[in-house]
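Hi U.,

Before I forget, here's the chain from the pilot set. I'm dumping it here mostly so it's searchable later in email.
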Amino acid sequence: MPSVYRPRRPRASPLWQLVHRCWSDFEAGYEKRHRPIHGPLRHDAIAVVRQFHRCGDLAAGFTRLQCPDCGHERLLAFTCKTRHFCPSCHQRKVRQTGDWIARVLCFEVPHRQFVFTMPKPLRGIFRKRRKLLDHLFTTAIASLRGWMRARLELPEGQLAAVQTFGDYLIRSLFEQEQGNGGEDGATPT
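Structure:
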């Protein structure tokens, strides 16, 4: 049986509603409440939130689909295509990327996964000084490469990525909605 198209309803999601209600207050109060601890609010983060806010909205653009057999038409709203913030668009991109990695990059040989995490006391430093994150990332990869060559005698090959965006912003918006990010400068721990 063919699958039935079910249009997304992004405005019904709790995340969309939270961003819709709280983003302008969050953005207006960021300098006073959050910048001293977390550094400047990056322009790319602001752009991602604005794109997310228009995701799936017919007023922001759409394409018209028509069934060649019966002529029935349906409007399909454009998506934001952002990663790490919009759950729907991120999931689609994760699946596409994972499929591409499996089909194109990875040979049928054993694989290993390594995850490096940042100790909490250092996270604020890297949040404020983003250029240092690039240096840390390349150093970690070089260290891992050297260890693999020396200990495991494995051929060269690696896929690496940095994930940083989303968790703080969503938590801050939620706390603002709950009244915990008030004028006293309270920030999440």
